[in-house]
Design a protein that fits this description.
single chain, 121 residues, mainly alpha, 8 helices, 70% helix
Amino acid sequence: MTGKSNGLSVEERKKRINDTVRGWVNYYKLADMKNLVTRLDQWTRRRMRMVTWKRWKRVRTRFHWFKKLGINKRKAWEWANRRKGYWRISSSHILARTLTNELFRRARYISFLDYYLSVRS
């Protein structure tokens, strides 16, 4: 689902991820797994950041999205020209600052931890 080259649209990927989160948490909801779902959440967000970075491909596109997400022009241009690998960039402060957890929440991605806590209560 979060592979770099599976060709899924953003909406299809979101649907599959949300379905998987719901199914997985509902299946294991009786277990005490708060730490596990927290780590899964972190890993999933990192994968989604990686896929987003891959989807932005070109420097111009990255620059455009950084500006749109509130980064000043100079920093946006500097960050858009990073040449590190997708997985390495996904854990950087660059994407953590722009592609925040709140942004994913507003895009209606389901968080493992939030869903687990709602099911457990």
